[in-house]
Predict the structure of Putative N-acetyltransferase.
Amino acid sequence: MSLLFMNAENKITIKSVSIDDARLPAVIHDAIGNPSPDKVLEVIGSYKNSDHSITGAFIGNILVGILGLYKTSEVITIRHISVLQDFQKQGIGTLLLEEVKKQYKGCKIVAETDTESVDFYAKSGFTCHEFKGPYGNLRYECELNL
Ligand SMILES: CC(C)(COP(=O)(O)OP(=O)(O)OC[C@H]1O[C@@H](n2cnc3c(N)ncnc32)[C@H](O)[C@@H]1OP(=O)(O)O)[C@@H](O)C(=O)NCCC(=O)NCCS
């Protein structure tokens, strides 16, 4: 466990993030494929629908991680999860997932991801099934019943 983890852990606040938050583009960026500035803003705009929400992890005033989802009946779909590179592997992604698990007890969480991040979901208790993406790339459909 790094010193940064020890410091960060005590100061992390989890709370809702507005789509107008100027810190959001830089954090959601890495969870978006081919993230041109326009595409990032378009994706953020899609969260204005009332069934969508974004939860953030803050260290002081720094937004270090986000988890964006939408809810349809009893299914929660994670659309984006991202932690700033300097703060990765310190438990922040897990904290964001824990918040969703607490909020949506009794629901099913689903997420689609790639080879790079599938282990994050597997380690968080999700069952992940491989499938071939539109460009022949490997993708994973992950799910967890709460
Ligand atoms: C995926 C991501 C959100 C994980 O956040 P994080 O704060 O680094 O995750 P945690 O520190 O809570 O990690 C929990 C566990 O998963 C593992 N893990 C985290 N990211 C991983 C990754 N990309 N690949 C494999 N394992 C990973 C950690 O090592 C840890 O395992 P451990 O408990 O055995 O030590 C983060 O790596 C990220 O932002 N990646 C870029 C964006 C992205 O790819 N998003 C997902 C697709 S939309």
Q: What stands out?
A: Residues 92-103 form the longest helix (12 residues). The first strand starts at residue 12 and ends at 16.
